[in-house]
Amino acid sequence: MSRRAAPLALALVLACAAAPALAAGPAFAPKDRATVAAYFDKLIAGGDCPPDLAASANGCYPTTSERKWTLGEALNSEVTYYPLPGELLLDLPESPDGMVYVRVGRDILLVTLGDHVVKDAIPDFGAQRAPGTKPTP
Questions:
Q1: DSSP string, 1-32
Q2: How far is the C-alpha of 39 from the C-alpha of 61, rounded, in Å?
Q3: What is the DSSP letter of 136?
Q4: Spatial distance between the Cα atoms of 36 and 50, rounded to a whole number of angstroms
Q5: How confident is the model at residue 14 (pLDDT cuts 50, 70, 90)?
Q6: What is the pTM of this model?
Q7: Do 72 and 27 meet the contact criterion of CB atoms below 8 Å apart?
Q8: Measured in whole angstroms, how far is the alpha carbon of residue 75 from the centre of its chain?
Q9: Can you tell me the distance from the alpha carbon of 115 to that of 9, in angstroms, rounded to the nearest whole number?
Q10: Which of 45, 62, 79, 131 could, after both became Cys, cross-link 137 (CB 3.0–4.6 A)?
Q11: CATH homologous superfamily of 26-126
């Protein structure tokens, strides 16, 4: 390979490696998932449940087990979503232009403004614990 072709080949390899990440679009980072989990663990351990969730011995749960959203699709008009609490928003990065964070049941979604297409999600408040176990205070 010639001296001129080597830098071009390297640039092409790097561009191809970055392409899937760029094509994937906005996404929650692992730190965001941990932030969401810590916020809701603390809230639930204190005995508080967000609106539309029912308190139980193992935390806060939606009244239906059916997940009412699909990644890459617009939220159904029947889906009720809530803005995230201001305290949590302060700990998350600013949402990308044209997008907003919302909560649907126990899931945190990144959706587009207007048509509400789900771009990314943190299911089950970012829980890293076994299902049905109570968060530690």
A1: --TTHHHHHHHHHHHHHHHHHHHH-S---HHH
A2: 16
A3: P
A4: 13
A5: very low
A6: 0.73
A7: no
A8: 14
A9: 41
A10: 45
A11: inner membrane protein cigr (3.10.450.160)
